[in-house]
Automatic annotation (TrEMBL):
Record-linked InterPro entries: UPF0750_membrane, YitT
Membrane topology: Multi-pass membrane protein
Organism the protein comes from: Paracidovorax wautersii
Example of a GO cellular component annotation carried by this entry: plasma membrane
Protein name per UniProt: Uncharacterized 5xTM membrane BCR, YitT family COG1284
Entry annotated with the keyword Cell cycle: no
Entry keyword set: Cell membrane, Membrane, Transmembrane, Transmembrane helix
Length: 210
């Protein structure tokens, strides 16, 4: 006797997040990223996107990372507003501002006496990937290349992790002119860990919230 065909499971519908859920995710995501950047700073490592540019300028000028990161991201808000919408832009602005504040605060509340750069690269990469994933699933980002990568995923189906990995590797390789090659190698590892995590975990249609 022929068994009836098992119906295919329907895709999980988009979830509508409340303001409390958004606030919790934005705070947790930026906190994870701030901790990762603190690890990178103490280990002398870099990261890609606008954060990497801010790190490079910080190493060269001595101006704090938080101030540089906030200013560098300002031109990207127009792109976000026109291509990603008002909600995404406002949340991204709040996330960038919060991260700038947290990175200024962290040296006063936490310090690591010894930090192996390999450990910092792996742990920092995972913290960055997790934090960015929290933000992306709640329609936010940390500006810069992340805005571009999320736009390409949303509009063209190109995985954000692939785009992020390509952009970040270019930025980190530019650091060869500023920091020792060994530190650049660890920084590239951190980029690969973060981007690989996003590549696997942040797929179009897997989880979308509004």
């Amino acid at each position: 006797m022929t068994q009836p065909a098992t119906p295919m499971p329907h895709a999980t519908p988009s979830l509508r997040h409340g303001h409390y859920e958004d606030a919790q995710a934005l705070f947790a995501g930026t906190l994870f990223v701030a901790m990762a950047l603190m690890l990178f700073s103490q280990a002398g490592l870099l990261i890609g996107s606008t954060a990497g540019i801010a790190f490079l300028l910080h190493y060269v000028t001595g101006i704090s990372f938080g101030k540089l990161f906030f200013v560098i991201n300002l031109p990207f808000y127009w792109f976000a507003w026109t291509r990603m919408g008002r909600e995404f832009t406002v949340k991204t602005f709040l996330s960038v501002a919060l991260l700038s504040v947290l990175t200024e605060l962290f040296p006063h509340v936490m310090h690591v006496d010894y930090l192996n750069p390999l450990f910092a690269a792996v742990l920092g990469g995972l913290l960055l990937g997790t934090g960015c994933l929290f933000l992306a699933r709640h329609r936010s980002s940390l500006g810069g290349a992340t805005i571009v990568s999320l736009y390409l995923q949303q509009s063209h189906g190109i995985r954000a992790g692939k785009v992020q990995m390509a952009i970040d590797c270019v930025v980190v390789l530019l650091a060869l002119f500023v920091v020792p090659p060994e530190r650049v190698a660890y920084s590239v590892l951190a980029v690969l860990v973060m981007s690989g995590f996003l590549w696997i975990s942040h797929r179009p249609g897997r989880y979308v919230g509004h």
